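Milestone 3.1: sequence recovery, worked example.
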């Protein structure tokens, strides 16, 4: 994946957090590792 797609993806993940989606936190943590 390219960083350009990772950025908007991060916002989409945050939106899904409101939808009781536990798996979303795993993706968020994985995305955070890329930016970290």
């Amino acid at each position: 994946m390219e960083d350009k797609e990772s950025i908007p993806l991060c916002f989409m993940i945050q939106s899904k957090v409101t939808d009781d989606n536990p798996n979303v936190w795993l993706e968020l943590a994985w995305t955070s590792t890329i930016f970290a």
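Residues 3-35 form one domain. Helices lie at 3-17, 22-35.
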